[in-house]
Amino acid sequence: MSHLVLAINPGSTSTKIGLFRDDEVVFIKNIEHDRQEILKFPDTPSQREFRLKFVLEALEEHGVAPTDLSGVVGRGGLMPTIETGGYVINDLMKEWITAERGGSHASNLGSLLADLVAKEAGCGAYIYDSVASGRLPEIAAITGFPEIKRKSLSHVLNSRAQSIEFGKKIGKSFEEMNIIIAHLGGGISLSVYEKGVLMDSVGDDWGPFSPERAGAAPLMDFVNVFHESGINKRDLKKKLRGAGGVVAHLGTTDIREVEQMIHNGDKKARAVLGAMCYNVAKAIGSLATATFGRIDYIIITGGIAKSAMVTELIAERVSFIAPVEIMPGEYELEALAAGCLRIITGQEAPKVLVAIDDEGIGISEIVANGH
Questions:
Q1: Is residue 150 part of a domain?
Q2: Integer Cα distance of 313 and 20 in angstroms
Q3: Where are the alpha helices (DSSP H) in the chain?
Q4: What is the CATH classification number for the domain harbouring 344?
Q5: Beta-strand runs (E) in 147-207
Q6: Domain co-membership, 280 together with 324
Q7: pLDDT tens readout for residues 309-318
Q8: Which partner from 61, 64, 246, 339 sits 20 to 30 angstroms from 210, CA to CA?
């Protein structure tokens, strides 16, 4: 018996979906949304019905009814800190995401959309390898503010999938290598794995700025600029995620447009792109200290890794640490679908979020019957 799996991966201005029959692709579609339409919504969760319409239309275009689906899986968003792997989407998860208790991020829509589609389909709804998966060692979690601890927030899904694929290419398993992975997209995150174990990460709000994320900034200047400005919390969050970074400097989130500006002699565009790449390189260098400099490979992945200008600017600064492998694009839909297929065929038992402690750590249980 074959299984039809729908994978949903929301981005800031796009919704990528993939339909898979077992491990074969039926179709993949990148639904582009008008940025100005997206900006009309007060928050990310309120976009769910707007985006759902496009997902259902795409299925209908390919002659697929929701009831044909065996399972639906969405990219996991800013969850409490949880383990890697698959989770059943339940009310506690949806409440956390809808209230944006972990922060605002397009990936939050993954679970909400998967849940809505699965209800129409009458099948199971899951997330897989949430961006909040993985617990940092204590030494990496402590900050100068006792009330604030660093948590791992990175592109876990694509980083792990690309690392595993790279290992196959060179004949090594993920668990044999020490790898730094930089995922370059609308947001930029980095992580370092030692023999398959997450040792540290750099999230999109404390690391390099990106096409639409402000990234890290001097805290005293941040306080001085915004404390007296009267800006409310929601608008400030939008400046950090969605309206900061390259778009704040140059008015575009498209790195191809920035490259064209540079080719046309725009010195500001050259400086901004160079600064973004410089900050990515610095973050890679800092993560190398987590393994005492013992790094086997550096992987640069994500949509922006298609830019030779970007990858060359980064690689020339970090190649002294370890060989640099460029793996442009992402395989998140494939990784989501593969995880969901393992769950619905009983090869992997999903977990369920049963409670969240005061520090935002998710308490999970294995689902007894697998799904």
A1: no
A2: 37
A3: 35-39, 48-61, 91-98, 108-121, 138-141, 156-170, 219-227, 233-240, 246-250, 255-263, 267-288, 308-318, 332-344
A4: 3.30.420.40
A5: 178-184, 188-194, 197-202
A6: yes
A7: 999 999 999 9
A8: 339
